[in-house]
Task: structure prediction
Amino acid sequence: MVTEEPGRRAGVPLRELLDALDSTVIDLVEAPEGDAVAIGSVALLDSDDLGEAPGTPVDMALLVGVRESAVRRWLGDIAARPPEQRPRAILLKSTAESAAVRGAARRSRVAVVVVHRKARWDAVLAQARRLLDRAGRPDDSLTTDTDLFGLAQIVAQNAGGMVSIEDPHSHVLAYSASDDSADELRILSILGRAGPRDYLRVLNDWGVFDRLRRSDEVIDLPAHEELNIKRRLVVGIHATAVEGGSRTLGSIWLQQGDRPFEPDAAEVLRGAAAVAARVIARSLDAPSTETLLLQRLFGTHGEGVDIPSVAGALRVPVHGPAAVVGFAVHSPAKERHSALGSVIRLHASSFRPDSIATVLGDRVYVLLPGYRSASSVVAWTRQLVDQLEAGRGAVLRAGIAIPVAGLTEVAAARAEVDRVLDSTAATFPRGRVTTLAESRTAVLLGEIFDLLATRDDLRDPRVRALFDYDRDHGSQLGESVEGYLREHGDVRHAAAALRVHPNTLRYRLRRAESITGIGLTDPADRLLLELQLALHRRGSGSTSN
Result:
């Protein structure tokens, strides 16, 4: 929950920030105001900074190279300041566990956080700023272009294990939460230090780093018991330019914990690598434009979109067949929508590395440029919906627009997909996934019925009289007429379906014609009657066919 006080920028609870920084790096040892205080800014402070006159307060101060006596004196000074001019938390190394420092912090109402003695301050500061920047953006991990932490956490949950995302120089950019099974290599990497030299030499001898630079394969690295290094899966992160060629942007490492990897861990990693490539590349090239570009591409900002510019920024071709898939997520817990959306993005990137996904409102949209076959898109969508429903307890429906001629048609395709998703579940001809071609009749009829339902003057009183007669006399004339129309006027087939004698059905039909004045042999009367009967069924909640 984001909070804000006068004179302070909006922030996030301290506990969320510390959880994201990871227990291998830091530990909260004193929290006089609790761990829910809002943190919106962070800065490195040394002894000279502590001696300066109070200025704009910083919420979280990283005290670097400051003696214990100076820390105690500074905490004593800020105890006299108004609450809005005090830091809310301080990060320390060796002096943090001092009883005198902790006592001074309690009196000053300031939280104290212990930092691992081997942690690099510049790494801690960089990670904290990334997390605060991420928290200040909209809660949409699919469209936030620096949300590598969210990606790492989602991969860890779906692949099993602990994740770290590194740049080409093996500097950690983001990571998932650690547990007691984290090995030395992971801990040192998160602390901003190099891993054990002997193990790095083994990786080099195996050609791991060369393979990561040259291929997109997921490499399975066995455990090294002598060095106490656990099994890992690793994949390279590569950005492919529209004009050809590629560049290496880093790697994703998945350490095995106390349980085996999930069966589809390699697939999840491949999808994550494609997502991370776009996240990193766009954050380098144009970090502030991706969300707006995606919204324009999918038609949420009206017309006048510069498609060539959008295509260049998103690295997708302007022309050629594409598919647009929309997912309507109906989950018991509203907060799970963004997580499900992120999982959909991972699977889409694994299916098509050049796919693009975004969340608009409570729906997820995926663009699949250059798909190989319509049947493969439909099969992938059905498999994904089944998998998410079985594994997460969510209810999803998906509409597919295919083929889409190119990027200029994406907005129109999304609008058509929305028409499908806006229709009732009963109009889906084949379960929870349908294409526009399969559902066109059902969707149009549904929209016609919705329109008719809003206009009382378009309801035929003759049909109402028929059902009033049935109610008053306990008869089944309406059901008999529906059965007759359903069998296209074949009395014998309709009678068999209704389980009555043909002569009985003929009598009922003549009686219905007499009451309504509608001729069942007239094509126009039959068409109107079918529409009115269907409208009556919808209004009464009947599920009969």
